[in-house]
Amino acid sequence: MKGDMTLDPMKLLPPGVRPFEVTLHPGGQLDIRGLDEEAQAMQVAEALKQTPLAGVREDTALWRVRGLLIRGQAQLYEYAVSETGDAEEASWETRPFPDMPGVPVQGDGAAPSTFDALHYREGRIDLEPDAPDDLLDAVEDAVREYHGTEQNWAERHAAAGGPANELPEARRVRLRLEETGLDGAAGLRFVALPETAEYLHGGEWHPYAPAPQNLALDAPEQSNEEDDSPFDLFSSLFDLHSVTAELHADGRVEVQGEDLAPELRAALQSHLGADLGAGDPAKWEVALRGLFGLEEGDEVPSGLRVGLLRQMVEADPALAAQAITPSAVTFDGQTWTELDDGDDGDEPDEGDDE
User: Fold this and answer.
1) pLDDT by residue (tens digit) across 139-165?
2) What are phi and psi of 297, to 5 degrees?
3) Vertex 100 angle, CA 97 and 104, to 5°
4) Residues annotated as region Disordered (predicted)?
């Protein structure tokens, strides 16, 4: 028995990643959809207000942007315009992003000025992106200064607002590189951004920073109605799967993506294989059963084809590997079965060959 291979797309995004949509009105009002917390809406609003996209303008058109909020950092991937100026009757036309400085658009080529640090209790530190050799020691020192070492790990965790009875297995935070106005290496410092801080306990990531109270945004109050759900935003995300990968239980991992940098391809292969257990039969079975909700007696696929968001791959290959969208499976390594889109519970057609 091969089980029901239907998927709930909202379960595919890892913690810390949310799709969002913002309508920008000529008068400067921002209508933000897809985010559950005021703190998240604030992060998106502040990012947009630092660009020429937001602000008062003389035309009457509506602008719309879509993006991903990745660990507190907004990344845009779609820009559209409606000349009607009426949100209820908007007719959207997708256009290239305006050539304006400061817009956080995928592939803008800007050099990284921030580093995401994953710090394990035993001392290991992983950085995304990799820090240059001349900055590596300084970045790691800043991480230890913020998180502490194994000796004062619990103390620093409590000082950050974490529960004393939950000793983290790991912590992560974003650090920003700032200039102090001095010359040379002494003129640089790393500043931890507390709003991005999280800790790992019980297999789940938990934020330290609570959502701010009395946040004033020029946007309608968030509601819990179904039309505010980010689920429908996935229709635009599916078009962005310009990176695909095939994984096999025997350990083979093949990544395809036009013009994908070799180091990104290698990192993605490594993270995908490790996360899904390619080459480790026991881990592969656990991962695939968990991914599809397979029950005892259901056959586990021997191969999996997935799509990934290119902008997430370029921003953080490790995070992208957790945000896969399975598109097909194989049970014999040759015949691929396209997955159901989740609209009904029908069994997939097993006769589709590539």
Assistant:
1) 888 888 889 898 889 888 888 888 888
2) 100, -20
3) 65
4) 332-354
